Amino acid sequence: MLLSRYERMIARRYLLPGRGEAFIAMVASISLVAVMLGVAALVIVMSVMNGFRAELFDKIVGLNGHAIIQGYNNQLPDWRRIADDARRTPGVTSATPLIEQPLFATYNGRSEFILARGMRVADIRATPTIRDNVKQGALAALTPGSGNVVIGSRLAMSLGVTVGSEITIISPQGPTTPFGTMIRQVPYRVAAIVEVGVYDYDKAFVIMPIEDAQTLLLTGDSVGMIEVETNDPDDIDRIMAPLKQKYVASAQVSDWRQLNAELFEALAVDRIVTFTVLSIIILIAVFNILSSLIMLVRAKTRDIAILRTMGATRGGLLRIFMTVGTTIGALGVSAGLVLGFIFLYFRQAVIGGVSRAIGIEIWDPTMRYLTELPSKVDPVEITVIALVALLFSFLATLYPAFKAANTDPVQVLRYD
Fold this sequence. Notes:
The chain is α+β, with helices and mostly antiparallel strands. Helices cover about 55% and strands about 20% of the residues. It is built from 17 helices and twelve strands. The strands form two sheets. A six-stranded mixed barrel has the order 2-3-10-5-9-6.
């Protein structure tokens, strides 16, 4: 929108009303603050939602892969051949054999349900989610037959163990006797404590060499599943299709969307609903711009009539008032983006400060699934938020701008 010199001067004058128009200035300021808060809320919430999805995807997929090939009855006797076939499949980057079994662990009278996971030692040390999150101890002590295990930080806290402590894992799969199946109790030494950042995993995982897991569960040379990673998780259906067809009779192939369908679908729905609701909040905020412009037009009716008699065109008046309203909206959008980014940068400090002030833990990992508030700023999404807010601000200027442009100078000045 190109303005002439006099149009810019008048628009600048109307953006800073005089003494007798303090109320109009106050309403315009409220409009700016309302748009700022609406944009900041939308930026913060959408970035946090994106962070949730990204963190959950990275951590969950980092431990469970993009897909799993799981044997019926949790048994894959021919797992080496299946793993080799998976590695040769176009798009597959790795295939890792796993054993997972819910069991029970005790230490000094404390007991917790656990998820025992058996992996090859090389795979344990090569998995970034495990390797990069060791809080105590070292993975080097984890070798087959050593009786050493890695446990999650929350599980260590619940049991009251540290590196070097000896926990007892209880397995119902023991030897069969004339009196029934005997429960097995096997001691293991804690060699390392990890914190992957997902509460459910940190509270349950006990990771051990796959040979030790086979011995503990009496599975022989069999494994329970093969974890598959690909070069394109969004194209997982096409990549895994040949394996699904080949092993349909002996194994079930599931991808990350099926394994975590409820979680990621809920996040997607939440993002849409949140964006819609907060966009409505911004829409309500720009109604303040509409109100302030209507009051400004009414207060400046005589000035508008004089401008018309001096040769101002309808288009010029239209541009002046549209510029005034859009400028208020643009300032609010800019301030909202800055406020949103500042909050996201200091989000953990803000949450900690509020928690201390009210004496309540706002971010409880047992309820929030992740140990920290995540955030991921999407430039495309931020651009859309800014454009939507600017569009709403622009639309709010149309009625008062047309009202000003259609002012009849004859009717206004007849009795002056």
